[in-house]
Write a structure and sequence with these properties.
Elements lengths: L14 H5 L3 H27 L2 H9 L4 H31 L8 H35 L8 H20 L27 H29 L12 H32 L13 H35 L6 H14 L15 H13 L1 H15 L8 H23 L2 H7 L3 H31 L5 H27 L15 H30 L1 H4 L36 H7 L13 E4 L4 H17 L3 H19 L5 E4 L1 H17 L23
Antiparallel strand pairs: 1-2
Length: 687
């Protein structure tokens, strides 16, 4: 066999267009061209601007949790652009006269990549990034417990995303949907490299997510500030704790299932081959043992974000803190008890379906508790509708609709009629767009100043919110209607005339969502351009409640000059009510931070090379990549010069400088918080 394995010229993205010219192959070639030209354009820009060195020293080699979080979020936004564009193309295909402009195989590839990207390469890096930025600051930590492992997790996730992008240029992605059920994804029915792209891209990112979960859990356990008990943590930190436990236990079944599928395909095993003693239901069970907790891995951090944004912009403390914590724990536990509802229609007994149907409905109870807590927090509060608050309130209304349709689908008799229809697609998006994306958008608008020192432009933020809201309802409410009319999901085209008006509305909704995404890109562009007028160097631009707002903006690499002593659940609010504008320092001591290192990047690079070689059966290159990966880890393990010291005097100088800045920053009223008068430290007595 060649050193290049199964790779040949026909796998290059432009070849199919010349051998089988059509609009469908032309679109595929165009997408591949955009990836190649985009990568070249970025390299040219970095070279012309001379940004390679700062990119390497400030970002690629960083072990700072905040910068790692920012890179995660940038990755998520890049992949979000691809995911939304694919959705628009699919909607356009379905409103075109049958059979449309895409081949059936191309459409199947699009809905497979769309689902895979949005779950694993938008949602997961987005929430991991936000947790990276915020959680250590909220518990009074200087960094994650394992900074090096944190960076390795990042570069493994980027490697997985790079493989999905590479499938546009070399070969094809799979066509069996984001769940990749065998036997369709077995070697007989899917002999090309598509399923292997799915296996190895998810393999990299699932290992990265498992390591992140371990890191979050241990950080919360060991790095909380002195005096901070578990029930003194913020709701976001609690959401992170529960999410971390879910990540540790839920990602493993996915990793195992995908590796077993790889053994079936490449080594002649028969784990999922019914005629050879295997059982594909084992795959379904393992996939959904991951899959349903995954829904709450995605949603719980967003719940945490809303629990921080809503009290801040209501001017009140969160209503029912203890009940919110227990509701979060209950959701995390129950999420492991409902996976069978994903295959009510696959042949198990009525009794089993009834048990899992009831368990599924039960999960609505703690979720309802949270919704009431958020509404009661706003009740009689002084509401300020920032972009973050708009996404939060928009979430509540929209998520309740999605929750009601979820309770309907938990009834096996209804699920039998709607399971394979667009009704299910509408419900799924009804949960995850408000329950994940709206939360992450709120988080970015809320905590952005902590990373960059300036606020995001509110005008374009509000425009993006309304476009997303209108677009969401336009794109997905029609799918409920035609789903109930019998429209099946994953269809490349429809011939039923009654569906057409609804599909046109859904198409317009998808365009509106795309406009919302463009508005967000403009928001970032305008904010960077006007950053001087949006700077909030004194920190706390929203009259916030968490201790992260006691810091200046941007937050220094070491986070806290002195680790705060926790005397209550909200010490920053207590300090402000006592008339203070900066928290009292404790003891200045030398601190040690890990030095920047390129080793995590190299580990991610060779891991990606290994995975790419496995996809195209380049066994020699795969072996070299696998060995190189562990050699790098060993080299790092024997490196004893990996820390740098920041002296107590440097920390004292940093504290004094921030204190002088705070004392010279004029206090403003809340009514001026969205104006250029806001330089930080808005102070107003809270309820």
């Amino acid at each position: 066999m060649s050193i290049l394995g199964s790779l040949d010229w026909n796998d290059i993205f432009i070849v199919p267009f010349f051998t089988e010219p059509s609009l469908s192959t032309g679109i595929a070639a165009g997408a591949g061209g955009v990836v190649v030209l985009g990568a070249l354009a970025v390299m040219v820009l970095l070279t012309v601007k001379g940004w390679w060195k700062p990119l390497w020293s400030n970002w690629i080699t960083t072990l700072d949790h905040k910068k790692i979080g920012v890179i995660y979020i940038v990755l998520a936004l890049i992949m979000l652009i691809r995911g939304v564009l694919e959705a628009v193309v699919m909607r356009a295909q379905q409103v075109s006269p049958a059979p449309g402009f895409l081949s059936v195989e191309h459409h199947a590839e699009l809905f497979s990549t769309h689902g895979t990207i949005m779950i694993f390469f938008v949602a997961m890096p987005f929430l991991t990034g936000v947790i990276n930025v915020v959680m250590p600051l909220q518990i009074g930590a200087r960094d994650m417990e394992f900074p090096f492992m944190n960076a390795v997790s990042l570069w493994l996730s980027i490697g997985g995303a790079a493989l999905v992008m590479a499938s546009l240029v070399v070969g094809h992605f799979e066509t069996g949907g984001w769940t990749a059920y065998p036997p369709y994804t077995g070697i007989k029915l899917s002999p090309n490299e598509g399923v292997d792209y799915w296996i190895w891209s998810l393999g990299l990112t699932s290992v990265g997510s498992t390591l992140s979960g371990i890191n979050f859990l241990v950080t919360i356990y060991k790095q909380r500030a002195p005096g901070m008990k578990l029930f003194d943590m913020s709701i976001f930190a609690w959401a992170t704790l529960c999410t971390a436990i879910l990540m540790i236990f839920a990602m493993m079944p996915l990793t195992v299932a995908s590796l077993m599928l790889a053994l079936d395909r490449q080594a002649g095993f028969h784990f999922f081959t019914a005629t050879q003693g295997g059982n594909m239901m084992n795959f379904a069970n393992m996939f959904w043992l991951f899959g349903h907790p995954e829904v709450y891995i995605l949603i719980l951090p967003a719940f945490g974000v809303f629990s921080e944004v809503i009290p801040t912009f209501s001017g009140k403390k969160i209503y029912g803190y203890t009940s919110l914590v227990w509701a979060t724990i209950a959701i995390a536990v129950l999420s492991f008890t409902v996976w069978v509802h994903h295959f009510f229609t696959m042949g198990q007994t009525a009794n089993l379906n009834a048990i899992f149907g009831i368990a599924t409905m039960t999960i609505g109870v703690p979720t309802g508790v949270k919704v009431f807590n958020w509404m009661l927090t706003m009740w009689r509060g002084k509401l300020r509708f920032s972009t973050a608050m708009l996404f939060s309130t928009g979430f509540i209304f929209t998520f309740v609709i999605g929750g009601i349709t979820g309770v309907m689908l938990a009834n096996p008799t209804i699920d039998f009629a709607t399971h394979n229809s667009l009704f299910l697609v509408a419900h799924f998006h009804n949960m995850l767009i408000p329950g994940l994306l709206f939360g992450m958008f709120a988080a970015v608008n809320f905590w952005f100043p902590l990373c960059f020192g300036f606020r995001l432009d509110e005008k374009w933020g509000r425009r993006s919110f309304w476009l997303w809201m209108i677009g969401f309802y336009g794109a997905f409410m029609p799918l409920y209607a035609i789903g109930l009319m019998g429209a099946p999901r994953r269809m490349a085209f429809f011939t039923e005339p009654a569906y057409f008006p609804w599909l046109v509305i859904a198409m317009l909704g998808a365009l509106c969502v795309l406009a919302g995404l463009i508005a967000q890109v403009i928001q970032i562009w305008v904010s960077v351009k006007n950053r001087e007028s949006l700077m909030v160097p004194a920190g706390d631009p929203w009259d916030g409640r968490g201790i992260e707002w006691s810091l200046g903006c941007p937050v220094p690499e070491y986070d806290f000059t002195t680790i705060p002593a926790m005397t209550s659940r909200e010490p920053w609010v207590d300090a402000k009510e006592a008339g203070k504008r900066i928290m009292d320092p404790t003891e200045f001591v030398d601190i040690h931070l890990p030095k920047p290192t390129g080793m995590p990047f190299l580990v991610g690079l060779v891991a990606t090379l290994f995975a790419f070689a496995m996809i195209f059966q380049m066994w020699l290159i795969a072996a070299v990549g696998f060995v190189a990966m562990w050699v790098l880890v060993l080299i790092r393990s024997y490196d004893t010069d990996w820390e740098e010291t920041i002296t107590a005097e440097e920390l004292r100088e940093g504290y004094e400088a921030h204190k002088r800045l705070v004392e010279t920053t004029p206090q403003i009223r809340l009514d001026d918080e969205f104006t250029t008068k806001n330089r930080g430290l808005i102070m107003e007595t809270q309820v």
